[in-house]
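chain below, 264 aa
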Amino acid sequence: MSGEVYGTERPRRKRRGRRLLITLIIFLVLVAGVLVGLDRFAAGYAERMIGDRVSEQIADQNATSEKPDVTIEGMPFLTQVLDGNYKRIRIQLANLSGPAGNNRTVRVADLDVNADNVSAPLDTIRSGNGDIVAKTVTGTGIIDYPQLAELIGQPGLKLAERDGKLVGSAPVQALGQTFDVSGTAAVTVKEGVVQVRFSNVTAEGLPNVPLIRNLIDSYVQKLSVDLRVPELPLKLAVQKVEPTPEGLRFTAGADDVSLNAGGL
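prediction:
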């Protein structure tokens, strides 16, 4: 009799053990789900707050853009909060438009900004005192060639990239005829201003005489342009510009940026 009781008790204990294990697993899954949900909620709130601050800063600079798309990268978010360090905060701005000097406006379809190694101690967040600092901030964007030609303002000018260089061609009137001139431009950055300077301009079919050469040289001067990229958030300064098939790609950067002072 006792053997029968013992024999039936062992399967019962096993079943109870399995049920307990399943219950524990379900509980842990639910807890993990709640924590993940809480983490994403907190991250989403912080991303919206940063986006609002960036929008305010863009408006203060007399520029416009669509609502910033902010992503705090790295998981989990709350662990980064407690640690006081964020691996990367990514800010994407679509259709940024702003003043470029001389009553001109520059449009950038997509500005991609990364703030890396952001130090934000929990005490600073709680009290509002102290600095939140990004070790490096970089941004990239493109000014397309039709817009660049429009900013230069010479009728019929067409721009493109060839072998990593900016090339252009345009019609010019001489000797009662229309000739196509073409040349290569040097693109540089000086004190935050993008400078486009054409050289080695030739005109097929035109005689190489001083009068014609002076005409071409005068036209080349009209192709020169200085562009001030719209003031960028987070104190970004244009550092490099390079021709690409899509347009002039500019790279802007800044080091040890105080996000508090930058409007965040």
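The helical segments are 2-60, 77-83, 122-127, 145-152, 210-223. Residues 27-35 have pLDDT under 50 and may be disordered.
thats it, cya
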